């Protein structure tokens, strides 16, 4: 049956899973959903993912939805013997901490900027939402002054998840090196990994969408 991933291009959570899969050398059979036609709310897809969101993974009949849960599943099942799947429970907890940080703060602040543009017809960003999103840069910059990666010395799925969020946010709120040098260094380092290629189509799709939606871009 293989591993099917239900996606839409331009989605940061989809990009996170695509990059993690490439980092772990996992082949995925991609099934694109047409959100403009509300295919994600169709009866057949809601049986796979009751939330109607993307991505969702079908690994030979085992269904996982929510990108952070998918990342943890891929890490545990396919990451054995790699730095991306540490055995130390403290390191595992640190990874979980930063996945929750991405889900609960970073992604939410980024999506608070994009949602009005893509789904509510706004043609300019909300300045307060931009300020909240930019404050995430300051937090990450403090974290990355201490370590090369968010959860320690090695690349983990926490980096990949946060990187996917930052790719989207950097598209409309550039990470300036003079303001956030540690974050900018980490961001450039993540872009140098081969798995970044898996996010390029999604990144271009998001930027193209912003060009059509915003008054000035």
Automatic annotation (TrEMBL):
The keyword Transferase applies. One of its GO terms (molecular function) is glutathione transferase activity. CDD domains: GST_C_Delta_Epsilon. It comes from the Eukaryota. Keywords: Transferase. It holds the Pfam family GST_C. The keyword Transferase applies. One of its GO terms (biological process) is glutathione metabolic process. Gene3D superfamilies: 1.20.1050.10, Glutaredoxin. Signal peptide: none annotated. Residues 1-82 form the GST N-terminal domain. Residues 88-214 form the GST C-terminal domain. Homodimer. Belongs to the GST superfamily. This is Glutathione S-transferase GSTe8. It comes from Dendroctonus armandi.
């Amino acid at each position: 049956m293989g591993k099917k991933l239900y996606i839409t291009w331009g989605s940061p959570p989809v990009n996170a899973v695509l990059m993690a899969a490439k980092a772990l050398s996992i082949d995925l059979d991609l099934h694109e959903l047409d959100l403009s036609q509300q295919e994600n709310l169709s009866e057949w897809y809601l049986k796979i993912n009751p939330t109607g969101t993307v991505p969702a993974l079908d690994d030979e009949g085992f269904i996982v939805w929510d990108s952070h849960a998918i990342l943890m599943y891929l890490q545990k099942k396919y990451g054995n013997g790699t730095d991306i799947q540490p055995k130390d429970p403290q390191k595992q907890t640190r990874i979980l901490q930063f996945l929750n940080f991405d889900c609960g703060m970073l992604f939410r602040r980024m999506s608070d900027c994009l949602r009005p543009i893509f789904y509510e017809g706004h043609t300019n960003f909300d300045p307060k939402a931009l300020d909240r999103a930019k404050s995430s840069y300051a937090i990450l910059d403090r974290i990355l002054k201490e370590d090369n990666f968010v959860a320690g010395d090695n690349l983990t799925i926490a980096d990949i998840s946060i990187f996917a969020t930052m790719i989207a946010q950097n598209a409309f709120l550039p990470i300036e090196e003079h303001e956030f040098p540690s974050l900018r260094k980490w961001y450039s380092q993540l872009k140098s990994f081969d798995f970044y290629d898996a996010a390029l189509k999604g990144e271009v799709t998001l930027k193209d969408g912003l060009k059509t939606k915003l008054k000035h871009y």
